[in-house]
Amino acid sequence: MRDGRGHGRGHREALPFFVYGTLRPGEHNHDLFLRGRTTAEEPARLRGALLYDGPGYPYAVDGDGVVTGELVTAAPGHHGELTAVLDHLEEYFGPGDPRNLYVRVERDVDTASGAVTAWVYVAAEHVARELREKGAPIPGGDWSATR
Q1: 45 touches 52 (CB < 8 A)
Q2: Quick count: other Cβ atoms within 10 Å of Cβ 25?
Q3: Domain of life, per the record (predicted)?
Q4: Helix count (H) and strand count (E) of the chain?
Q5: Angle, CA of 121, 123 and 124, to the nearest 5°
Q6: Is 13 a catalytic residue?
C-alpha cells in the first residue's frame, strides 16, 4: 500500500476517490459536495481495512477486513477543486499535521472491472488508536447498511 506523501504531483492529481460514508450516493454529503463535480460513481471495496462508526462519521482503519463504498471520478477540470473541498470536509490539513482527523492516502480498491488506485480518507493515527481501543468495527464494513 502506498501513502499520500507527495500528493498533487503527476498522475496522483487525477486519482479517483473511494468514499464509504456520508459521501456515498443517498447520504447527506453526497449532494452537497459531489453533485456536478463527478463523471462516474461505481461500487467498490477496500480490502485491508476495518470500518468504525466514530463520533458522527465512519472511519476506515487499517485492519483485516473489507470496507464497502463507491469509487468516484472527478469531472474534467474539477479534480483540484474536489480535492480541496474533500480535504476540508474530512479535516485533512496535510501530511503529518496533528489536527488531521483523516489522512488522504493512496489505496487499491476493487471494482467490477478490476483494481483501481484511488485516494481514500482513513482515520489519522491518533483517531485510529482510540477507535481500536474503545470502538468496535462495523460488521460487514458497510456503513450505509447500518443506517
Answers
A1: no
A2: 14
A3: Bacteria
A4: 3, 5
A5: 105
A6: no
d(CA 54, CA 59): 6
Cβ–Cβ < 8 Å for 103, 121: yes
CA distances from 57 to 75, 106, 144 (A): 26, 20, 11
pTM, two decimals, is 0.89
pLDDT tens string for the chain (147 positions)?
A: 333 333 333 455 689 999 999 999 989 999 999 988 999 999 999 999 999 998 778 999 999 999 999 999 999 999 999 999 999 999 999 999 999 999 999 999 999 999 999 999 999 999 999 999 999 999 999 998 886
Catalytic residue, candidates 90, 91, 106, 125: 90
Cell of 142: 458497510
Q: Residue written as cell 489536527?
A: 99
Q: Contact 95/5 with Cβ under 8 angstroms?
A: yes
